UniProtKB/TrEMBL annotation:
Catalytic activity: a 6-O-methyl-2'-deoxyguanosine in DNA + L-cysteinyl-[protein] = S-methyl-L-cysteinyl-[protein] + a 2'-deoxyguanosine in DNA; a 4-O-methyl-thymidine in DNA + L-cysteinyl-[protein] = a thymidine in DNA + S-methyl-L-cysteinyl-[protein]
PROSITE patterns: MGMT
Domain Methylated-DNA-[protein]-cysteine S-methyltransferase DNA binding: start-end pairs: 101-173
EC number: 2.1.1.63
One Gene Ontology term from the biological process aspect of the record: methylation
Keywords: DNA damage, DNA repair, Methyltransferase, Transferase
Cross-referenced SUPFAM superfamilies: Methylated DNA-protein cysteine methyltransferase, C-terminal domain
Protein name: Methylated-DNA--[protein]-cysteine S-methyltransferase
GO molecular function, one term: methylated-DNA-[protein]-cysteine S-methyltransferase activity
Source organism of this protein record: Patulibacter brassicae
Length: 184
């Protein structure tokens, strides 16, 4: 069911602004490292775009956005698992849902390869499918597609830019006590 209203808020992060679109139940429907609401709203399928986008202050503790905002702030403070339990919803095919479920299990500080993610999801040669699941992810960083690298250790792509991906990986490596991945 398409929500009639989504609540929008922006959180300042060291990687840039993180814009969230959240439904009345607090479920993140779309998010991204930009302050352009049109860019984030475009991540939603056309028939799932709400009639109303209501702006709310990131500090409004009573807003539906509050749990997601609190999780992002905890993550930024070094609690790397804080994003794991944030409810998200995005339209996806069954194979993509499996890949994204496995993606949420990739530990911070230990990036996976596209092929490794595909194999974890039971797709022996599904690195292309894993790449598409990451590229079409509408709820970054809650579904942490930034934690997937090419098999040679290179960063690959990231919808929000490689500088954001590098920052997220370095932040997670620092707080997880891991080695910072190769940033090619």
């Amino acid at each position: 069911m398409t929500p009639q209203t989504l609540h929008r808020t922006t959180i300042d992060t060291p990687a840039g602004p993180l814009l969230l679109l959240v439904d009345d139940a607090g479920v993140v429907r779309a998010s991204g490292f930009t302050d352009d609401v049109g860019e984030v709203a475009a991540l939603l399928p056309a028939d799932e775009r709400p009639a109303t986008l209501r702006s709310v202050d990131a500090d409004d503790a009573d807003a539906p956005t509050a749990p997601a905002v609190a999780a992002v702030r905890a993550y930024l403070d070094g609690e790397l698992g804080a994003l794991d339990d944030v409810a998200v919803a995005q339209r996806e095919r069954p194979a993509t849902a499996i890949l994204r479920r496995h993606l949420r299990e990739v530990p911070p500080g230990a990036p996976a390869s596209y092929l490794g993610l595909a194999r974890a999801a039971g797709l022996d040669r599904g690195s292309r499918a894993a790449g598409q699941a990451c590229a079409r992810n509408a709820v970054a960083p809650f579904v942490p597609c930034h934690r997937v690298l090419r098999s040679d250790g290179a960063l690959g792509g990231y919808r929000w830019g490689l500088a954001v991906k590098r920052w997220l990986l370095a932040h997670e490596a620092e707080h997880a006590g891991a080695r910072v991945p190769v940033a090619r």
